[in-house]
Amino acid sequence: MSFNNRILALIALVFLCAVVTPAHVWSQETPPAATPEPTTATGLTADDLLLSKPETPEQLMQAVVQLTDLGHAASAKAYLDQLLKANPDDELILKLRDKYGPAAFLRLSNNKELQPQSITLLKKMEAAFRAYATDPARINALINDLSGTPTERDIAIIQLKSAGEIVAPPILNQLSRSEDPARNDELTFALTQLGEPVVQPLIAALRAPQEKIRKIAADVLGDLARPSDALYLWNPAYSQSQPQSVQVAARLALAKILGKSPRKTYELNRHEAQLVLKNAALNLYQKHEAKSENQSVWVWDNAAQTVVKKQLPTQEINLIEGLRLAKEALEMSPDKQDVQTLYLAMALALEAYQVGWNQPLPEGPGTAFNLALLSGPKAVSRVLALAMKQGHTPSALAALKALGQIGSRTLLHEQLDKHSSLIAALNYPDRRVQFAAATAILQLDPARPFPGATRVISILTRALRGEGTQAAIVVDSNIPRGQTMAGVFHELGYDTTPVQTGMDGFKAATQRMDIEFIALEYNIARWGLSQTIANLRADSRTANIPIIIYGPLRLQNKIEHSTRYYPLVKYIVESQNSDDVGSQMKPFLDGLKTPELTGALRSEYRAAALYWLSHIATGQRTNIYDLKPAEKPVLDLVSDRALASNALITLGSIPTRSAQEDLVQVVTTQTFEADVREIAALQLAFHIQKFGLLVDTMQVTELQKAYQAAKDPKLNTALASVMGTLMPDSKIVGERLQKFQPATSLP
């Protein structure tokens, strides 16, 4: 509001206080307002406070501003309503913005008496100005003005700066196409004047195919970028694939950003570049939590010959950027194993993310999976170790699949920590990884016992059921308290074993290999808390078992700080209420697992598990794997025609009386199909041959009756093999020989 207008308004107010009420007449073009005239606290209408009754949108806006400035916002609201109902276009809104300034719109929006209409007006103004500021024709015109007089150039830069980051793409596009050095200098100078908004587009331009663009981007970033942006200049500065001009520009830019003398760029070196890039890539590899929200990212578009802004999920951006940084680090030191491992892990992680949890990795030329196969088992084993250490399940799954195809039995005995990464994967928190590790080990077909063989069978058995018991260990030096906490965890669904010392907890965890988590009371003895955690994390058998520490609230910050460098550790406040404990620990444990398996995948896992159990049985590997724990779940699957064969083959190799009784039950049950009973009879004969007759005479009698009643030729023959294994005496043999009738008479 101008000074003269304000004075006139005050004069009018004084005049009106003398009870002078002028008459106002609306023009014929503008119909009277439908709403009654607003009144002030003194009984005067809002029109009485104005020199004239507002008719046009411009006058309505003036009335709103004047009345609000005079402290009569409630009276101004009716005029604001009329203004919005008139639906002013962008041109008019921008005209009002130029007249009153953005601050006036903001001030009105903050006045509660004018809300929500004043907020609507502010949003209309912002949208109109955004459309005006980002109009491509306007921006291109301003860019052309950079070649004008100094005054025109200064005005153009001011206007371009107000538009923000969107001016970078057209400027870079013109730089890509321009061959005029003078024009290039004008455009480069303009970029240096645009400030922080163009930093991210320029970082994307560092990866342009044109040497000229990369050099200009490095030059300008040296003036605009912050130390946190220096990361993206290390590769242009020290990669041997970069031309000399780009290297020099990037090194000078790094020196400026990091506060070093441009004459001492030698203080920065290739080794430091490789280390910075590797650590940055590793940091992005660690940020693998699933996030649904999208994030803006600038990339170079070859077709457009400039940078473009895209919206991608945060997790995908982290993987793409991490893979790029890992590749740049690899350029610095191609033979460094830790960088090779990180790059391969990032490549597998990105492809796994792109296809989704429940889909197999793409295979064939140019895929990350084929790259893993070509890299050899040692490299892939290192990827598996890194993936488990960082809790990155997708790349762990990919590594296990590759190891199953290219690995050897020596992987089961390699000394990474104290046991191999493949063995450690059997106890990883996610069951997908556990199953993949078990099947990978079975593919290697070990010829002698190895640590974790019993764990393989328990994983396969759990897959048969689709679920399994969840075990846990509680370490507490106070026996009653330890038993109480064990009871709390039991209520949450965990089969919990309490022990008294850190050493005992460690031993139990390494021996059982089916532990979902280890709970440690904060004040445990022999070993203490820190030593117990260190030992659990140092041994690959326990390195990936989640650790839950419980204690009083007052110690939470202290213990969380002291354990911050250990993965998979969570502090909870001690409680005897299972709901309270569950609400603290379950989000932590659930966050370590992949999405639940679909019904179809559960069926696939069940069929695969049963196949491998039957493979153990037929491959004579029962000296390595004890199949006894699988007996009951295997028997439950005999009724499924698709699974019956492998289930019966597995039962035939379990050296127990109950397994032989199970086979007799299937053979003698008439409701089973003849082909299923046939397979059961053949396995029963094999079982009796290998382990002897273990069933009683009553069951033998049932077998004899089944043989006599069998009409199906194949079933009858299979049952005959069973009867033969019963070691009939000479009398029975003679009777059977006499009863035999040849198909053709003797000549």
UniProtKB/TrEMBL annotation:
Keywords: Signal. The keyword Signal applies. Residues 1-25 form the signal peptide. It comes from Gimesia panareensis. It comes from the Bacteria. The lineage of its organism: Bacteria, Pseudomonadati, Planctomycetota, Planctomycetia, Planctomycetales. InterPro entries: ARM-like, ARM-type_fold. This is HEAT repeat protein. The keyword Signal applies.
